[in-house]
Specification:
By secondary structure, the protein is α+β, with helices and mostly antiparallel strands. The chain has one domain. Helices cover 15% and strands 25% of the residues. The chain contains two helices and five strands; from the N terminus they run E-H-E-E-E-E-H. Strands 4-3-2-1-5 form a five-stranded mixed sheet. The chain is globular, with a radius of gyration of 15 Å.
């Protein structure tokens, strides 16, 4: 398992991506379409048209990880392509919700509690 820090940004590439793309082709999409650095220690997620396959591209230390997930019966909640919008940013927590099959757009976690002790 690859641990993601709470400060890690997750970028969902809106719309559909050809799942035949390799690390090099996905890295080129990150640069050319998302306008991000693929070696930035962030996570870039791509989904197919059927919304049952995901690829995650991330850089750690000296190389790329390419993770692939395929659902047999369900579909991922995925943002549709909107003119002018190329990516949606999630937190690591929202990514876990997405991978668990939850609608990350409708879920809100517990708010952080603040106590005045003195």
């Amino acid at each position: 398992m690859i641990a993601l820090g709470e400060d890690t940004r997750v970028y969902l590439a809106v719309g559909a991506t050809d799942m035949r793309k390799s690390i090099d082709a996905l890295s080129a999409l990150v640069v050319d379409v998302l306008h991000q650095d693929p070696c930035s220690h962030q996570v870039f997620i791509f989904c197919n048209r059927g919304r049952n396959k995901l690829k995650a591209l991330l850089w750690r230390r000296n190389g790329f990880w390419l993770c692939y997930r395929r659902l047999e019966r369900e579909r991922f909640t995925w943002p549709s392509a909107v003119p002018g919008e190329v990516a949606v940013t999630l937190t690591a927590r929202e990514l876990r919700w997405l991978l668990d099959g939850l609608d990350w757009r409708r879920i809100e976690g517990h708010r952080e509690a603040h106590f005045d002790l003195f």
